[in-house]
């Protein structure tokens, strides 16, 4: 089954953004002067109210372990996920023989669950992820007929963390982990057992009077009173053990020579058994470890190993019974297999789709079967907000219709669209999305790169059309960082890396007759890292555009800022000064523009007058970082930045003045397209101004 990328409604509300949002465009949106007459009429400051966030919601459950009861059809999978408030909460799902269902577990754990074992179809114990921050209180989650509950208990040593659990019955569970500490749970209370002689990685307790565990070079056993050890007589390192009855166990050792197995039988010591073959499967991509050995009550044990070339290994399920190994080939998993659970006649392989190394959490699914008979079942995947997810650019060309670009550490680039009934995810247009502009609903341009070349895409009738890459002979790589459109006529700005590694520069471009027309402007710098402000552009009319860019020139530690002006069909390039950076621009009308940036740590705001002169705007910006500016009328602009509240600027003749700060604080983007319609947001909250 192919990877599912379903479009998701992110926030359901009766009207978009909690009451409907008037037109609000991205910074640089054409037509910023608003309806006729608005630019000259004095306006009262906007009133800001918090509203729903344009944050993408996705299935994001990470399963860490699965436990199947020795009898019956139940299996329980545990892990963590992020809910709609971005909080990490424990995730529990249960297989009842026909479907996976999410089970409630409250209050939430801070790090989720990492281990589970079930002694009956109803009774399970799951361990909370180690905290590693001291203290003597530990928690486990206990399942019984009424459902899940948390149990807090005390340990004797702050260094004692619990990472392995084995339950012989609902009233006999043994827990251990790094530090050699051991406790037993009798269904009601927790008490300590003697410490293990050596540190063990996992244990299996088929009865209250017997447990087997493994250390790297030794077998460890409990007889109900004391722990004993016996050395591994062979090569490799012991990694796992499982038992189906007292003194009836199988252990696995992995080493350079491959995987080997050791069997324990009543009346005898541990002895080396037949090798299962294959090599230990690497699960480093998920960062969650490898599935363990699973033994059924009948004495059949199962193990996952890989075969074939390392670049394209084949995953196989190896089954051991009375010294003989059999190999089964399950269907190719959708992602990375992170957990294995088996009961009589069925094994369950849980896999995660991993979007980038170390960042799983998009979709979980499970393969159920044995031998040649396998079926795939979708696991419960509640919607939530993946971590490090935030919107960064917005365009709203009409009331109740907005398009927002965002990025997430887990899912990469995303796009959400508001249509008056809520936010809905649409496929991302580009691998690297920098800016966008819309001239009417479902008529937008998104710009950025395909990971290497400058690229853009047009949204029409709800679908993206990828435009050819910008690739003149002088360009090796780069990105489009700014776009401004007057109706469907768009002008682009960005940076490029020149051929033969002679440097990196800036460009402006248009599309005419289906072909790109690009022009290089200004000096070359060392590389992309020399930009302190990438090109930002606004076109107040079809024949007039203004762009700003800042960079560190060769052998100069201080940045130099430049303006690019399209006037009378020609581009003009000029330096504005040194020691400050400009990286965001919006034009209030054809003659007046406001740009923001920084001069050291304090934010910097500058304006361009009708005579082409740039002037500083007096704004109290102590310890603030400027991020965004948007001008809804010819005499009014709004500023947003971290370290300050949203500010309103008003213009009299050529002088801009800052008014009182508004309620929203630490905003990273502000977008207006009308005198009474603005949107501002950061990674945590979204506000509308009326």
- CATH architectural type of the largest domain: 7 Propeller
Q: What does the average pLDDT come to?
A: 87
Helix content: under 10%
Question: Ends: how far apart?
Answer: 48 Å
Strand content: over 45%
**Order of strands across the widest beta sheet?**
1-36-35-34-33
Q: Give the CATH level 1 class of the largest domain.
A: Mainly Beta
How many domains?
Answer: 2
Radius of gyration: 31 Å
- Which homologous superfamily in CATH is the superfamily of the largest domain? YVTN repeat-like/Quinoprotein amine dehydrogenase
State the oligomer.
single chain
Q: What fold name stands as the CATH topology of the largest domain?
A: Methylamine Dehydrogenase, Chain H
Shape: elongated
Query: Helix/strand-derived class?
Result: mainly beta
Residue stretches low in confidence (pLDDT < 50, at least 5 long) are 1-42, 282-287, 356-361
């Amino acid at each position: 089954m192919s990877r599912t990328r379903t479009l998701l409604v992110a926030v359901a509300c009766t009207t978009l953004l909690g009451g409907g949002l008037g037109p609000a465009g991205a910074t640089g949106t054409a037509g910023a002067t608003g309806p006729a007459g608005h630019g000259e009429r004095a306006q009262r400051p906007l009133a800001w109210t918090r509203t729903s966030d344009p944050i993408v919601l996705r299935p994001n459950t990470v399963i860490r372990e699965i436990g199947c009861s020795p009898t019956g059809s139940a299996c329980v999978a545990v892990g963590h996920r992020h809910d709609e408030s971005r909080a990490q909460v424990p995730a529990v799902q249960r297989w009842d023989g026909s479907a996976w269902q999410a089970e409630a577990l409250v209050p939430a754990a801070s790090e989720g669950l990492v281990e589970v074992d079930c002694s009956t179809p109803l009774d399970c114990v799951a361990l909370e992820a180690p905290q590693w921050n001291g203290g003597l209180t530990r928690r486990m989650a206990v399942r019984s007929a009424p459902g899940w509950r948390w149990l807090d208990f005390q340990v004797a040593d702050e260094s004692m963390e619990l990472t392995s659990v084995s339950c012989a019955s609902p009233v006999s569970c043994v827990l251990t982990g790094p530090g050699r500490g051991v406790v037993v749970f009798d269904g009601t209370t927790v008490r300590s057992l003697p410490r293990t002689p050596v540190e063990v990685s996992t244990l299996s307790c088929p009865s209250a009077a017997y447990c087997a565990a493994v250390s790297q070079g030794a077998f460890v056993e409990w007889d109900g009173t004391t722990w004993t050890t016996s050395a591994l007589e062979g090569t490799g390192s012991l990694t796992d053990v499982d038992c189906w009855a007292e003194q009836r166990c199988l252990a696995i050792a992995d080493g350079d020579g491959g995987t080997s197995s050791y069997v324990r039988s009543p009346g005898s010591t541990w002895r080396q058994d037949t090798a299962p073959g294959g090599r230990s499967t690497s699960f480093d991509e998920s960062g969650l470890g490898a599935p363990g050995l699973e033994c059924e009550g009948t004495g059949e044990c199962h193990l996952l190993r890989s075969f074939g070339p390392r670049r394209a290994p084949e995953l196989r399920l190896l089954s051991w019974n009375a010294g003989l190994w059999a190999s089964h080939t399950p269907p190719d998993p959708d992602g990375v297999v992170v957990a294995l659970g088996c009961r009589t006649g069925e094994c369950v392989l849980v896999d995660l789709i991993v979007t980038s190394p170390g960042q799983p959490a998009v979709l979980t699914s499970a393969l159920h079967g044995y031998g040649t008979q396998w079926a795939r079942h979708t696991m419960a995947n509640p919607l939530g907000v993946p971590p490090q997810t935030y919107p960064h650019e917005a365009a709203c060309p009409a009331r109740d219709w907005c398009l927002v670009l965002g990025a997430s550490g887990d899912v990469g680039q995303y796009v959400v669209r508001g249509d008056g009934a809520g936010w809905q995810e649409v496929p991302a247009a580009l691998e690297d999305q920098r800016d966008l502009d819309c001239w009417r609903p479902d008529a937008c341009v998104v710009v950025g790169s395909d990971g290497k070349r400058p690229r853009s895409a047009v949204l029409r009738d709800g679908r993206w059309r990828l435009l050819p890459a910008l690739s003149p002979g002088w360009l090796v790589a780069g990105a489009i960082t700014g776009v401004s459109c007057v109706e469907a006529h768009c002008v682009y700005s960005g940076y490029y890396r020149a051929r033969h590694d002679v440097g990196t520069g800036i460009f402006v471009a248009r599309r005419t007759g289906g072909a790109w027309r690009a022009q290089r402007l200004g000096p070359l710098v060392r590389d992309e890292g020399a930009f302190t402000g990438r090109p930002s552009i606004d076109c107040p009319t079809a024949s007039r555009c203004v762009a700003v860019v800042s960079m560190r020139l060769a052998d100069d530690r201080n940045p130099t800022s430049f303006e690019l002006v399209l006037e009378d069909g020609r581009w003009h390039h000029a330096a504005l000064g040194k020691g400050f950076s400009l990286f965001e621009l919006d034009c209030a009308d054809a003659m007046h523009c406001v740009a923001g940036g920084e001069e050291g740590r304090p934010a910097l705001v500058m304006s361009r007058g009708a005579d082409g002169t740039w002037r500083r705007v007096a704004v109290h910006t102590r310890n603030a970082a400027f991020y965004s500016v948007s001008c809804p009328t010819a005499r009014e602009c709004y500023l947003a930045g971290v370290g300050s509240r949203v500010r309103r600027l008003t213009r009299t003749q050529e002088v801009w003045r800052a008014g009182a700060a508004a309620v929203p604080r630490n905003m990273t983007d502000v977008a207006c397209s009308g005198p009474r319609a603005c949107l501002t947001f950061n990674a945590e909250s979204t506000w509308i101004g009326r």
